Sequence to fold (333 residues):
Amino acid sequence: METRLFTPEEAVEAGCLLSQGALVVFPTETVYGLGADVFNEEACARIFSAKGRPQDNPLITHIFDTAQLDGLVLSLPPLAERLMDAFWPGPLTLVLEKNRRVSDIVSAGLDTVGVRMPRHRVAQAFLKAANTPVAAPSANRSGKPSPTSFAMACNAMEGRVEGILDGGPCENGLESTVIAWTGSRWAILRPGSVTRTELFSILGDNLEGSDATPHGELEKRSPGTRHPHYKPSIPVRMICSKEDLNKAYQEPYSTWALIDIKEDSNDHERGKARSGPVRLYADWQEEARNLYSDFHELDVSGVPGILVRLPPAGGGIEEALRNRILKASEGCI
Ligand code: TXA
Ligand code: MG
Fold:
């Protein structure tokens, strides 16, 4: 298939393609999405084949105006409007009771639909031109890290979709936070760019604590958490301690790439003693922003593997970063 590439100034042309049943990759502040008209079942079904995505994993729907919620959802749970006021447009996905117009392909047979309103200016122009809510998973091939740049999006999807819209590098670099009302409180189904601390500032005790979710319950609530995710094709190992870091300077790991933050930069004074590339970031936010593009670049660079610092547990971006690194490494230290 021939893929048309659109500049950011051509967001309207790219959005108009969706009414013809096309698949178009578009930028958001989190990661690039692989979009189709949510009400076009055939186009939504093609998303799954373009990605190689399991059918049991539902798609997030993207809107630019809350008026679009009418055709998508039946009702709003308590505090939903407070959440929208506080975090939309932005990287928060609310799982809501779906309108029957939303097909089972989009919701993977669930009676809910995930909805979010992106903040990215190019995404907003694209969604407005589309003139319909847009179903879109991250634009990676299933299991791989999500694209956070135009080049990564092209690498993953050129030849598989009708269009790819350039919006530059993604500001956040990790996916949106997905939350759902459980009947008594809001629960985080997937940690992401909106942090637990930020959610708590709006929800207070109406936010389920991180240790409150019964084991196995998260997998039931959010199908996507069951599948392997965010993995480069080379091995990823976590650095959790000083001893782990020492190993990064010894055989065989001294040839592996190392991703860390500058906090302990004294520990990296020995940097010259290792031959693998080192990427040091100012803080966790910067590590999060660059994680997927690093994974992608290092994956194709010929290094044997990637060592990456696991942040400590915390209410900030650490929670999402830990989640992605734990999955990419399958918990291997
Ligand atoms: O930042 C993002 O969220 C990006 C951009 C493109 O918006 N999208 C994204 O989509 O990451 P995807 O499909 O890669 O991940 C969506 C996650 C999956 O874990 C899925 O299981 C969960 O959201 N999800 C979607 N709809 C759901 C629903 N109705 N109930 C429970 N979980 C849902
Ligand atoms: Mg994804």
Notes: The radius of gyration is 20 Å. The longest helix spans residues 284-301. Residues 137-138, 146 surround magnesium ion (ligand 2) (CB under 6 Å). The chain has eleven helices and 15 strands.
